[in-house]
Each structure stands twice: as structure tokens, then as C-alpha cells.
From TrEMBL:
Name of protein: ATP-binding cassette domain-containing protein
Alphabetic keyword roster: ATP-binding, Nucleotide-binding, Translocase, Transport
Stored Pfam families: ABC_tran
Domain of life: Bacteria
Originating species: Maribellus comscasis
Molecular-function GO term, any one: ATP hydrolysis activity
Cellular component per GO, a single term: membrane protein complex
Protein family membership: Belongs to the ABC transporter superfamily. Macrolide exporter (TC 3.A.1.122) family.
InterPro entries tied to this protein: AAA+_ATPase, ABC_transporter-like_ATP-bd, ABC_transporter-like_CS, MacB-like_ATP-bd, P-loop_NTPase
Domain spans labelled ABC transporter: 2-240
Length: 241
């Protein structure tokens, strides 16, 4: 599904260059639930943007569902995103002047689906996430958890194979964060790959595989929800950071 080999990424900073990713090797299979962890500046958001074809990389190779991503035309990249990928963001990214149903239906609008059909499908997804009574509410009338569920419904409406979530619980309280994670686990149980960035170790521990980045490199990969081991390693990493 996802295969990276020796991937590097740098950004120009004036007359200098900031080397953000330093030789990332990574394999993620269809149906996995993966978290990417790391401190600020570790490269986790950059990695997620590359995985979601929102940013390019400099060297190495990245294959998404058998497609080599490097130097891909924007038209081809957009087609691949539309076919395979859904996004969920910390700030929800809802359009303020559209109600919940219209926000969820937006991807189908760009696919040319007529209004009646896309609204019908949007209502189905809102119902699935327990938000049907709020379908006509505007974003400013929704709680943080409701906004994130609207965003998740929007990410699902195109029936993606992968959901990329960038700090999906970062703007939520603890209880609501766990509710959102349970929704993502349910989505994963339906066979959709879920890859999320988080700085919260308790959230990361709810996934099947934890990829911990440090200084642009993979410091370790923890599998099978080994929470005790992860907590020990996380504490050790904090002490030596």
C-alpha cells in the first residue's frame, strides 16, 4: 500500500537548507492503523504531507498503491488523492458559511455529482456518525467533537482507502479525543488504512503501530499496541531529549 525507501526532504531557509527528513524507510500495509509521533520539528507533519501527496520529496522513492509519487504531475496527483485518500485536520477545515451537510458533500461537488444525490449521500454519512439531527447546523453551532465528526464524514464520502489525520484530537478535550479515536478505530475495522500524526502518547498507544520520529529519522517502530513498552521508551526519550 505504502512503501518509502531512503526518502529525504529539505526546505530552503534563506541561504541555507533545513534537512527535515533524513532517509525514511517505511512500509504500511492496507488495513493498518498507524500513528506517527515525535516532538516539534521531528518531521512528522512533513512526512504526513508527503504520504498524502500534498508535498513532494527530494530523494528516494515513495510508492502509493503501486504508483511512484516522485515528479508526478499535479493532475495525476489530484486523481490519486481523489481515488485513494481522505484527510482529517486538527482545525477541522470546515467552511464557515456551509452547514454540516454541505461541508460533508463538498468532495462530491468537485467530482461533479448533482446536488440532490450528494446531499442524500452526505446525510447518510452524518447519520452513520450520529450527526443527522445537526445536518443543517453551521460550524459555529457545533461543538469541537461534532466538528471533527463532520470532518471525518467528509473524509469518508469519497470512499477512500486511506485516511490521513493530522493531530485529529489536538483541539479536543480528553473525553472527546477518545470518542474520535473510537470512530477512527471503527473506520479502520472496515478495512480502511488510518495514518495519524499525534504528539500525545496515550492517543498513539490506541493504534496498532507507532512510528516514532526523532530529528528527521525513524527512531523506532512499536507494533501490536505494546503500551507498556511504549510508555517506557517514551519516558526514556523525554529524559534524553
Amino acid at each position: 500500500m505504502i512503501s518509502l525507501n531512503n526518502v529525504h526532504k529539505s526546505y530552503a531557509t534563506g541561504s541555507n537548507s533545513l534537512h527535515v527528513l533524513k532517509g525514511i524507510d517505511l512500509e504500511i500495509k492496507q488495513g493498518e492503523f498507524v500513528s506517527i509521533m515525535g516532538s516539534s520539528g521531528s518531521g512528522k507533519s512533513t512526512l504526513l504531507n508527503i504520504l498524502g501527496i500534498l508535498d513532494n520529496y527530494d530523494d528516494g522513492s515513495y510508492y502509493l498503491n503501486g504508483n511512484l509519487v516522485k515528479n508526478m504531475s499535479e493532475k495525476h496527483a489530484a486523481k490519486l488523492r481523489n481515488e485513494l485518500v481522505g484527510f482529517v485536520f486538527q482545525s477541522f477545515n470546515l467552511i464557515s458559511f456551509k452547514n454540516a451537510m454541505e461541508n460533508v458533500a463538498l468532495p462530491l461537488y468537485y467530482q461533479g455529482v448533482n446536488r440532490k444525490k450528494r446531499n442524500k449521500i452526505a446525510l447518510e454519512y452524518l447519520d452513520k456518525l450520529g450527526l443527522l439531527p445537526w445536518a443543517e447546523h453551521m460550524p459555529n453551532e457545533l461543538s469541537g467533537g461534532q466538528k471533527q465528526r463532520v470532518a471525518i464524514a467528509r473524509s469518508l464520502i469519497s470512499q477512500p482507502k486511506i485516511i490521513f489525520a493530522d493531530e485529529p484530537t489536538g483541539a479536543l478535550d480528553t473525553s472527546t479525543s477518545y470518542e474520535v479515536m473510537e470512530i477512527l478505530k471503527d473506520i479502520n475495522n472496515e478495512g480502511i488504512t488510518v495514518i495519524l500524526v499525534t504528539h500525545e502518547h496515550d492517543i498513539a498507544a490506541m493504534t496498532q503501530k507507532i512510528i516514532r520520529l526523532k530529528d528527521g529519522k525513524i527512531a523506532e517502530i512499536i507494533k501490536n499496541g505494546d503500551l507498556k513498552h511504549f510508555q517506557e521508551q517514551y519516558t526514556k526519550a523525554l529524559e534524553t531529549a
